Amino acid sequence: MAGLSIYASMLNVMALTTDRFLGVHLHLRYEEIVTVKRVAVAVAIIWVLSGVLSIAGLWITSLVSYQVYNAALIAPCLLTTALLHCKILAVVRRHGNAIWAQQEIVQNRNSTFTNVQRHKPSIRSTFYVYLVSLLCYLPVACLGALGIKYDTENIGLLILQLYSITIWFASSCLNPLVSAEI
Q1: Residue 108 has pLDDT above 70, yes or no
Q2: pTM
Q3: What is the CB-side half-sphere exposure of residue 58 using CA atoms within 13 A?
Q4: Residue 35: left if φ>0, alpha if ψ -120 to 50, beta else—which one?
Q5: Are 140 and 168 in contact (CB under 8 A)?
Q6: pLDDT at 74 (0 to 100)
Q7: Cα dist. 170→60, 149, 180 in Å?
Q8: Higher confidence at residue 149 or residue 4?
């Protein structure tokens, strides 16, 4: 169940960022391309893929191998999300520069500016969700990359490992709270 929730959370954050990217990048074609039916199919695929990945993780016997498996699955999601946020920022900046460069067309500028302004809060909240996810996954990823495993002899490492796993699991609960507050 832990793997299922973690993979679903990461894939959902990546899907949310992809949705915001498409909203900024496609402009008026967004509503034509991103439909309720396609979103429902994407969410179903995310949950099925998360289930398959978590079941596949059951066959890994060593804890270090399981941490490497998790890192190999989560790292591409984090990198893709980061790249999409960079592209979103570039598009928003380009739109802002184009708006201010064409000041003589006031009516067109206002409608385009309103369109960009409409997307800013959702882009900002998506970025904050990504940052919270990154902060929650980073301690486990670092410990996994260092090959630190459960060590009952060293109480400091055990506490560090348990706290990082607790934060990792809490990220799924924090994402809705962060996006609701923005």
Answers
A1: no
A2: 0.61
A3: 8
A4: beta
A5: yes
A6: 80
A7: 24, 20, 16
A8: 4
Q: How many CA atoms lie within 13 A of 42 on its CB side?
A: 15
What DSSP element (H or E) covers 152?
A: none
**Cα three-residue angle 173-177-182, rounded to 5 degrees:** 150
**Helix (H), strand (E) counts: the chain:** 6, 0
> What tokens appear for 91 in the block?
């598009």
Residue 181 CB coordination number (10 Å): 8
Closest CA to 140 of 163, 110, 108: 163
Question: What is the pLDDT confidence band of residue 25, given thresholds at 50, 70 and 90?
Answer: confident
One DSSP character per residue, 71-114 reads HHHHHHHHHHHHHHHHHHHHHHHHHHHHHHHTTT-HHHHHHHHH
Can you tell me the mean pLDDT for 169-180?
62
Contacts of 143 (CB under 8 A, 6+ apart): 67, 160, 161, 164
Distances, alpha carbon 61 to alpha carbons 28, 66, 74, 142, in Å: 50, 7, 19, 20
Token output for 140? 């486990």
